[in-house]
Backbone:
């Protein structure tokens, strides 16, 4: 008999800080011990104790076609035989770059990196090099990985500079990151006015999934685009989550707003550690070796990772109906859980677009970080545990989007709605 999750977690904490290699995995926001996973296939995750769950995380997004997607598995096996890494250019890197440029409307040139964090760190460096300016504006509640410049909270006044929200981030770094609430164009205008000719970039998730899912209000992104044009600011869409998930061309294709730079990750690696940043050739040509802005990576464009990523993107390019299918799955699940919520009388608010959704336990519409924080997170913890008991594994935090995959068939959708119904009934009786 193999070890239980509880035993493994106890052991893990001896050797790994908090027992996990990324904090949200520790279940701190929902209580209890994290499940240790043995394997996954299609929509199912299996823990080390042999329990099977229908899961709505999909490795935080990458598994658009469900787990252990066979074409990716085959491509990786084939690439492995040729040696896992060369540190020299390969034909496959050209093919994946070409495909990304074809799929994502704003990308003319692209550089591969190893994570979303690297992509956003590099994108702001290029924006700063290109504009010769230092400051960036980010939106409260948007997550751009763990780079120092992004681990910044709003200062006390609306137009003051940011403050580090993690020890280890220097005040100097924080000074260059300005914060605005998401969906608040006026706040951005004020920041630009208070810092004339100093803003290199505005970076945001066009459709944030990292405060739970939040949707942009009418004309918000268009307004940011116009401000960036008027003030020579580089507009960066962080599409690490939404890229290849909401459309082949990401949120920018779906919403029809074109950024100058885009950061990608998650799906682009098909489950391997990959990120990318790209955009206008004029800006990307500031990147070394053609330009002066330094950015490099020993394993960037790694052949195994590229084989997985290329296979994912190729599948997407060849199956444009994937997104209408995912939209239908997203709508069916949120309609189902919405009906149950309505009948329960509990306060709730559901945000959904395509294969991303969040159920918040608040009656107020969730449009930014402030309103997301109005959700009853204690109740969410109980809901999470109840769903787990009924065989559905959700993201272990209220402030995450859920991710659906094409592996969800009608019977799985029914099972999710049924688990939701039982969970809500148990929690209200
Ligand atoms: C996940 C995520 C990142 C960070 O990517 P990592 O690969 O975890 O470094 C950055 N931005 C957004 C929007 C993300 O969702």
Residues:
């Amino acid at each position: 008999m193999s070890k239980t999750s509880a035993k493994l977690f106890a052991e893990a904490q001896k050797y790994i800080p908090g027992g996990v290699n990324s904090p949200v995995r520790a279940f701190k926001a929902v209580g209890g011990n994290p499940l240790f996973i043995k394997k996954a296939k299609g929509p199912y995750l299996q823990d080390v104790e042999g329990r099977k769950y229908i899961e709505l995380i999909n490795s935080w997004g990458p598994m658009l076609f469900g787990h252990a997607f066979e074409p990716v598995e085959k491509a990786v096996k084939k690439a492995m035989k040729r040696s896992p890494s060369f540190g020299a250019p390969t034909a496959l890197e050209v093919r994946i770059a070409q495909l990304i440029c074809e799929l994502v409307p704003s990308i003319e040139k692209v550089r591969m990196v190893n994570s979303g964090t690297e992509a956003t760190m590099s994108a702001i460096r290029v924006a700063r090099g290109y504009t010769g300016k230092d400051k960036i504006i980010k939106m409260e509640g948007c997550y751009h990985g763990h780079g120092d410049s992004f681990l910044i909270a709003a200062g006390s006044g609306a137009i003051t500079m940011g403050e580090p929200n993690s020890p280890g981030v220097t005040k100097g770094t924080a000074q260059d990151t300005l914060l605005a609430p998401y969906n608040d164009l006026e706040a951005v205008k004020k920041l630009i006015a208070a810092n004339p000719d100093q803003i290199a970039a505005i970076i945001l998730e066009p459709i944030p999934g990292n405060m739970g899912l939040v949707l942009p209000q009418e004309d918000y992104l268009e307004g940011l685009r116009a401000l960036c044009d008027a003030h020579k600011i580089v507009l960066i869409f962080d599409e690490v989550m939404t890229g290849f998930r909401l459309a082949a061309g990401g949120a920018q294709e779906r919403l029809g707003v074109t950024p100058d730079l885009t950061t990608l990750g998650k799906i682009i690696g098909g489950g391997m550690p990959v990120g990318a940043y790209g955009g206008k050739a004029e800006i990307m040509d500031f990147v070394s070796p053609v330009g002066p802005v330094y950015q490099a990576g020993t394993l960037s464009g790694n052949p195994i990772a590229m084989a997985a990523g290329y296979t994912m993107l190729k599948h997407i390019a060849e199956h444009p109906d994937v997104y209408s299918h995912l939209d239908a799955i997203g709508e069916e699940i949120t309609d189902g859980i919405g009906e149950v919520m309505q009948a329960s009388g509990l306060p709730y608010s559901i945000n959904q677009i395509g294969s991303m959704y969040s159920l918040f336990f608040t009656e107020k519409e969730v449009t930014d970080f402030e309103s997301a924080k109005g959700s009853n997170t204690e109740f969410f913890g109980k809901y999470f545990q109840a769903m787990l008991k009924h065989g559905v594994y959700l993201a272990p935090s209220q402030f995450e989007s859920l991710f659906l995959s094409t592996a969800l068939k009608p019977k799985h959708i029914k099972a999710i709605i049924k688990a939701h119904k039982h969970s809500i009934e148990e929690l209200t009786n």
Observations:
- The chain has a mean pLDDT of 96.
